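Supplementary notes (optional reading)

For those who missed the lab, this is the record we used. Protein: AMMECR1 domain-containing protein. Length: 198 residues.
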Amino acid sequence: MVSANREMAVYCFDTLVAHYNCEETPPPAFDEGQHPLFVTWKKAINGTEPRLRGCIGTLEAVALKDRRFPPIQAKELPHLECTVSILTDYEVAIHYLDWEVGKHGLIIEFTDPDYNSRRSATYLPEVAAHEGWTKVETIDSLMRKAGFNGSITESLRRRVRVTRYQSTLYTMHYSDYVAYVKRIRGSPPAVNGVKPGY
């Protein structure tokens, strides 16, 4: 089983740095493969709790862009932390409550009874625990995330197909990335639009 690791987080930062410098991204220092994953960017300023800045992920071989956020700017790099989540152990749940808060991520799929259309959404394993949600609150929130605006009933919840999964995580702050690059490559990364010394 592949686990999220430091080299994956480094590669994510390398990709941003290369983008801002109009350069090609250096090759990854890990075995390439096809793994369901999410990359989450959080931003912390002046010691505040890091807040979600954006994420991109794939449950299969196609990446999904998070359009809730504007593109990350070079000047934000010193304030960013990157979390790589490799998704593993997919299982179809017996019913919508057949999962554990803090252990399982969820993919829900259901038919919108008002429009007869398929809807789906996902949350990573840490989301429900971080938000302090119960299982029912998590399912209801996922239904809203999927775009359902109608009345959520117990009958509708029971018709939701739930796939649960687990993940491995690795988180790295930009300052740790700079230290790593300096130690491994001999000098810190230079980034257009970022003051030297970060």
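If you only remember one thing from this example: DSSP finds five helices and seven strands in the chain.
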